[in-house]
Design goal:
With 234 residues, this protein is an all-alpha fold. It is 73% helix and 2% strand. It is built from ten helices and two strands; from the N terminus they run H-H-H-H-H-H-H-H-E-H-H-E. The chain has a two-stranded parallel ribbon. Helix 3 runs antiparallel to helix 5, helix 6 runs antiparallel to helix 10 and helix 9 packs antiparallel against helix 10. It starts with a helix and ends in a 6-residue tail after the last strand.
């Protein structure tokens, strides 16, 4: 490999710092993964699999939580369900042979896409903190390849899925404000009332603070990533 090749690669990476270039890359990836009925069907199938795993994880302890609180308690499963709804919504656009980036926009869709993005990013990153606060317990547990490596791997897929949504989605100030309220409410439920996800240890202020920071960071990222509804030039 020559120095000119290295310089060319560095210039290419440097271009990714420019927002228009990042948007083109994101739109191209979204077109590849979601742009045909077959590829979108594969992503939907994997999403359904992750949803089934999430439901199986929360189901044994759901009876200990009041039913109205289930959407906040089963946070990872709900995140995947919201992401699945976003994908189903764009299916009709893809079936018509149109580009996924040309999917219709509306205020209701903006709220759904924003909440799905925030929930997927937050709980895609959350295991990186929650599991590693008790790293020894998880890697020493039976079936650690599932309960540690499997969880980390599948949850990082949440983030990858969410990052496709700004290619066709929108957000609003109201949607972002609602996302902040949901993030704060979830932290209060999990660590204030004690309805946190099943863990091998009793979480404390460190995990609560980290969860809040990840959630608010996810809202900030949504505000930076999505175009605003009615501001198509952005």
């Amino acid at each position: 490999m020559t120095r000119s090749d290295d310089a060319g690669r560095l210039r290419s990476l440097g271009r990714l710092r420019r927002a228009p270039v990042r948007r083109r890359v994101r739109d191209a990836v979204a077109g590849e993964l979601l742009g045909t009925v077959r590829s979108l069907g594969v992503v939907l199938g994997f999403t359904a699999f992750m949803l089934a795993v999430g439901i199986g994880y929360y189901a044994p302890t759901a009876g200990e939580v009041p039913v109205p609180l289930w959407p906040l308690y089963a946070d990872s499963a709900v995140a995947v369900a919201l992401g699945g709804l976003v994908l189903v919504d764009v299916l009709s656009t893809v079936r018509r042979g149109e580009r996924v980036t040309d999917a219709p926009v509306s205020r209701g869709r903006a709220y759904l896409q924003t909440l799905a993005f925030v929930w997927l990013v937050q709980f895609g990153l959350w295991p990186l903190v929650s599991l590693n606060l008790a790293f020894g317990s998880y890697v020493a547990a039976p079936d650690a390849w599932i309960y540690y490596w499997g969880v980390l791997g599948t949850h990082l897929c949440f983030v990858g899925l969410a990052l496709l949504f700004p290619a066709f989605g929108r957000t609003t100030r109201g949607a972002l404000a609602l996302a902040v309220a949901v993030v704060v409410g979830n932290v209060g439920l999990d660590y204030g009332l004690g309805y946190h996800p099943p863990l091998l240890y009793e979480p404390g202020p460190l995990l609560a603070g980290a969860t809040l920071a990840i959630g608010l960071g996810s809202v900030w990222l949504a505000g930076r990533s999505f175009r605003r509804l009615g501001n198509e030039g952005r």
